[in-house]
Amino acid sequence: MTSPRTHLFRLLTWGRTLARHGALRGIENDPNTPAPVKRLARIARFGTVQPRVPDYAGAFQDIGPAAIKLGQTLATRPDLVGEEAVHNLLGLQDSLPPVPFAEIRAAIESSFGQPLEALYSHVEEEPVGAASIAQVHKGVTIEGRQVAIKVLRPGIREKFARDIDTYEWAAAHLEALGGEAQRLRPRLTIANFKRWTLRELDLRREAASASELAQAMRAIPGYHIPEIDWDRTNGRVMTIEWVDGVKISRREELVAAGHDLPDLAQRLVLAFLTQAISAGFFHADMHQGNLFVRADGTIVAIDFGIMGRIDRRARMWLAEILYGLTTGNYRRVAEIHFEAQYVPSYHNVDEFATALRAVGEPMRGKPVSELSVGQMLDGLFAITRDFDMKTQPHLLLLQKTMVMVEGIATQLDPQINMWDVAAPFVRNWIRDELGPESALADRIREDTETLLRIPALVRRLEEQYPPKGGAPEPPPLPDIELMWDKRARTERRWPGYLLAAAIGGATVAAALWSGWGA
Fold first, then answer.
1. Does 106 score more than 90 pLDDT?
2. Packing angle between helix 186-200 and helix 396-412, nearest 10 degrees?
3. Which of 4, 107, 262, 335 would bridge 413 by S-S if both were Cys, CB 3.0 to 4.6 A apart?
4. What's the N-to-C CA distance of the chain in angstroms?
């Protein structure tokens, strides 16, 4: 177990790095920052020279791999770190100097227990990408297929475990201070961060996520998930189909290749909505570096380490919220927040609806180039404090991905309106999932499931109340007092008798003494 002294040393070390980038200024100036945190920040920045403009992304980049991932998570939390920090963190690049190929070769051979040449006929020594957790090399299998080989950095699991241990310790102490820190639930934020990163650190999980998403999107034209090579995949190495295409961020190359950019933008938005609302399982790392466009216009996604999942009930609420905002039905959006218990019941529904109107109304009918989903989300976060709304961790990844998709769609088509694209899809989904036919189908399914549970219920009742056997029921038997029970009861009475005799004798003596004295 790590000692508090070690945790504090790590925090102070990281704090000095933050201070050198001016990233502690916001913490010290925020009136909601607890006093002990401000004192720690002052100690960390003592003797450092702070730049005029904070560079949060640079600070997290310098701290290390776990901090890069944490910074990307905090980029979804303007309520926690402020809008200035969020805008800066959105530019945080998950890239580090590559590991020498000799170490990568050793990692592949040790994980599979066989020479590299038994798996691949060729592997390029220069990586095509090197991130905080893994790096990717282009290769060719012994069967002749071109593949991408993703390999975890040696020792990365141990580094993440150490840093996350300190994040958990710090979050627990911060939340224990109460007030605004408790409402924002930093412990839950770190718990979700830990779960996401542990998933990324097991490449089998990433491969399974890619396979599941491919199955969910198989009927969607123009969107492709690369195929996994399961024979060359384990916890530390993943082999996946190689993707030839143009990065979706290279707008000029897409135009030169003759692609319809507004159509690409619309298909990307609809692909995201299909994943998030229809499937409830979405690619939560849809930044520009993870999306390619093939020559035939197919959008190809890569890097499935971060995935989001939303259950059906939450998806129904989400669809109604999105549709309510697109149609201006703010009262219904407010009611959904109360039904989902996002807003405590002691607040007024109509007041919350008015607050939502102030956020949503300026966006309606305008292109993303003027007002955006990201701005709307910032506005929604701004009213969470007024209505005592606790952070909903299951929606954090969704919010982050919505901002990413919006940014890419706007780059492809500056005049796109996310609401106009989303409204028909959401309306049709609501009709299919919440309409009369769907309600009837759900009722039939639920009642059928209830009927099927009746036999098991009867069996459990029989276990608690077994049936009588074949022998006749015995007659009632009289209660007979056992002699040792009688003896024990008699022995318990003797102290009472003696006490009563003593009290009686004392009473007689007192009476005689009173009569003699008279």
1. yes
2. 70
3. 262
4. 82
- Annotated catalytic residue 285: yes
pLDDT at residue 32, as a whole number: 76
**Average pLDDT score, the chain:** 80
Question: Cα(318)–Cα(337) distance, rounded to whole angstroms?
Answer: 10
Q: Find the DSSP H helices in 185-283.
A: 186-200, 203-216, 251-256, 261-273
Decide if 259 contacts 251 (C-beta within 8 A).
Answer: no
Smallest Cα–Cα separation from 121: which of 107, 137, 140, 138?
Answer: 140
Candidate list 94, 163, 229, 285, residue with the active-site label = 285
> Exposed/middle/buried for 365, CB within 10 Å: 0-12, 13-18, 19+?
exposed
Length of the chain: 518
The secondary structure element, H or E, covering residue 123 is: strand 120-123
Q: How far apart are CA 271 and CA 307, in angstroms?
A: 14
Q: Which amino acid belongs to residue 135?
A: Q
140: left (phi over 0), alpha (psi -120 to 50) or beta: beta
Handedness of CA 191, 197, 198, 199 (dihedral sign): positive
Token pair 């499931």 is found at 449
Amino acid, single-letter form, for residue 100: P
Confidence grade of residue 404 (pLDDT, cut at 50, 70, 90):
confident
Number of Cβ within 10 Å of residue 36's Cβ equals 11
DSSP assigned state of 228: B
Owner of token pair 């109604």: 320
pLDDT tens, residue by residue, 313-349:
777 777 777 777 767 788 888 888 788 777 888 888 8
What is the token pair recorded at 426? 């959401």
SS3 69: helix
